[in-house]
Specification:
The protein is of the alpha+beta class. The chain has two domains: 190 residues, Beta-Lactamase; 53 residues, Arc Repressor Mutant, subunit A. The protein contains ten helices and five strands. The relative contact order is 0.13.
């Protein structure tokens, strides 16, 4: 029974696939566990998802062998990546270049859920010809990209860069995989807290706007909400925006 539980499809979804170059060597598990415990505590102390992402990128560059620069990008519309945290211009430029040519290891890692390790980016003329041709422009020689996801929710990718060829090895990849799992959970948790706080704030403002309409027009709570919703629909503006203005008495919603 225990063996069946340990190999469920849900468990497998939490495991990022290693790169095709990985041969299965392992790190010193005790040392990795110590570093990841320290990282988990550090990330938990950050305030907000952006602070978590900034700290995660800095930690990845410090902890993953071979890394010189890093970026954490979130999944955007139309198969793009939006940088949320970077260590500087080189990482920023590399993410922008991948979006421009619509190909590269970061996109592959984020959307295929596979770790992508590249020894010589300029030599990748078959997989990413447009990117390989432009790699010299940003000065990136080797890359390690690690997908970030929690369960089935795709968050983005943690990308590490080096100006040296073959900078990343299996030790780099294994450290990166463990680190990426911790980072994904920390980012998702921070985003959930922010979304909850934002939802409560919106609910409070809508309640205030309803109160204004109820008092001004002698409406019930449901009638006041219907007025806000109708005005939002007719003006193609968000309900929360309308509620803020009504609560501040800068917009007048007239019941019909």
């Amino acid at each position: 029974m225990d063996e069946q539980r340990s190999s469920t499809p849900y468990d497998r979804r939490l495991q990022t696939r290693p790169s095709l170059a990985d041969t299965g060597s392992v790190l010193n598990t005790e040392a990795v566990a110590f570093r990841m415990a320290a990282l988990a505590r550090d990330l938990q102390q950050q305030h907000g998802s952006h602070a978590v992402m900034d700290r995660a990128v800095a930690a990845a560059v410090a902890l993953v062998p071979g890394a010189e620069h890093g970026a954490l990008s979130v999944v955007g519309a139309r198969r793009t990546l939006t940088p949320a945290a970077t260590t500087g211009d080189l990482a920023q430029g590399m993410e922008a270049l991948q979006n421009d040519v619509r190909q590269g290891p970061g996109l592959e890692a984020a959307f295929d859920h596979r770790t992508c390790r590249v020894d010589d980016l300029s030599a990748e003329t078959t997989r990413w010809p447009a990117l390989a041709a432009c790699a010299g422009q940003v000065g990136v020689a080797s890359v390690l990209c690690l997908p970030l996801f929690v369960s089935e929710d795709r968050l983005g990718v943690l990308s590490l860069f080096s100006t040296a060829l073959r900078a990343f090895d299996e030790a780099s990849e294994h450290m990166g995989l463990v680190l990426a799992a911790h980072v994904a959970v920390a980012v998702a948790s921070a985003q959930e807290v922010e979304n909850t706080a934002r939802g409560l704030e919106h609910r409070d403002v809508i309640g205030q706007a309803k109160g204004v309409l109820m008092e001004r027009h002698r409406l019930s709570a449901q009638e006041a909400f219907d007025v806000l919703a109708r005005f939002s629909q007719e003006t193609s503006r968000k309900l929360h925006t309308i509620a803020v203005e009504v609560a501040a008495s800068t917009t007048t919603c007239t019941p019909r």
